[in-house]
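Posting for a labmate who doesn't have an account.
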Amino acid sequence: MNQSELGGQVGDGLPGEGAAHSHLVADFAAYQTLKRRFAEANRQGLDVNFFQPRDGINASVIQWQGHSVINYSGYNYLGLSGQPEVSQAAKNAIDKYGTSVSASRIVSGQIDLHGILERKIADFLGTEDAITFVSGYLTNVTVISHLLSRNDAVIYDRDAHNSIMTGAKLSGSKVITYAGGDWDGLDRMLGARRNTFRRGLLVCEGVYSMDGNIVDLKRAVELKKKHNLILMVDEAHSVGTLGATGRGVCEHFGLPSSVIDVHMGTLSKALASAGGYIAGDRHLIEYLRFLAPGFIFSVGLSPPDTAAAIAATDLLQREPFRSQELRERSWLFRQLAREHGLSMRGDESSPVSSMIVGDSNACVLLSQRLLAAGIYVQPIVYPAVSMDSARLRFFITRNHTAEQFRATMPVLAREVSLLPALG
């Protein structure tokens, strides 16, 4: 393994160069930068509240250090995590199968629940078949890196999730990036470069997780057809939240599911479980089932996670009003923010709402003061976003109430107004 694979740089003091094994990464440049950032935060009196445990279900109110706080930092969009029917399904699966399938599915880890879940996902999205993975992040990384090679290109906008970027890098393909929403610019770029690669994979997100923007699916499909591309849409934040019955961006735009070649999504958000999936035509799924390393060399989805996702999918189909109620709450949150002079990014229907603060320390300070006032919203800082675009990211769920929003906005407006004096 070389230095870059370990995350170090030349002269970073790897074992064999005098560094003690007990301090393997102490001299890594990235780690030293991290420690400097912690020290600077400490000098400014800022708490680093990442990785702090909470109690109970990740709902609109959580228990944090013995106090009840309004929670805007969970993905439990439809309130299905903790819903009794979903929890009971997970418990029943443990009683029957145990807590793990204890092998990759191609070896001996397959249980009947796996096939049931994949059939339900495919039917729900209107595709021929589907396949599940143990991690949403792994799903993007393994599928993108395995679909393409060095003669190909991965095309994504600069706001893409890290898992998309990592999959593209591991594929060895050319990488083409463009400014989010600049479809005309991408069109011109592809017109000039399309003959330089064999296959092109255009990867979009249904709802972009940092800003809350909804992809312009119609333009993406237009460019897919014009430039002969494969279209992949990551619907981690859009399945369950968009569309009249929660079926995501195709339903939201009134387009058939066939316009997307590779449907990707996660089970950990609206579907109250953990893992990821790919849905599409049967040839794609068969290819991945027998050849994708992240599937065939990885343990199968656990029984309770599989059963929970099945129950959540069933509930969503029986109760599509959950999605509509979520969108109503998302609209109300933004409307109340505007009434208090606050600017929130993201589309009106999106459950992700970001407020740009800019400076990372100011963003951490704002989060810290909100928590002291009973409002839990985590700061998003570099390297998750650029140095000058630190933000608070609010995740809206069906379980949030108008009263919680009305309690939040005056406090948020007050603390934002005090930032210049406190920064």
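Reply:
Got it, the structure tokens are right above this. The chain has a mean pLDDT of 92.
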